[in-house]
Amino acid sequence: MESWTITAVLVLSLLAFPHLQALRKQPMTVYGDGKQTRSFKYVSDLVDGLVTLIESDHIGPFNLGNPGEFTMLELAQVVKETTDPGASLEFKPKIADDPHMRKPAISKVKSLLNWEPKISLQQGLPCMVLGVQKSIME
To answer: pLDDT of 114-128, one tens digit each?
Structure first.
């Protein structure tokens, strides 16, 4: 679990606003209707994928993303459940160049390298929150 705490700070950039806002008891910002999707991976999964790739004889490119797809509203719900069930949402206008969907295709890396991410958003988020809380307290 200690490596998860270290990793949490690295992943913070992906989810900085909802987490920090929820931890500070501020409303979490959702842009647009919140139906745009994103995929999140835990840094240890990325490192595992990179090591697997480096140790193989295959030459990329390979997508080491996580095909798990969440709407921003679903992300906000997971953040609420993890940090503060009473947290509120604040909707703001959609950002002009915000893509509607992001979902990596990992079939090539899965078939050639037998790699796929192992840590789900629901598993990694509590560890990340603990890491952020610990770093804020220090």
So the answer is: 999 999 988 888 887
